[in-house]
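ok so I'm stuck.
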Amino acid sequence: IIDIERIDYIRTSVNAVRNNLPDGAVEAEKKSESYGQKPALVS
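replied:
not stuck anymore, here's the structure
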């Protein structure tokens, strides 16, 4: 049961991060990766 609770917590956390991403951020990241650029850790 502890493992199920842990998975639910992780799933909730991942969804929270996804919902907080700005619109177009994922597409911009994929585009920059296609050019061989590494993502910036600090903007």
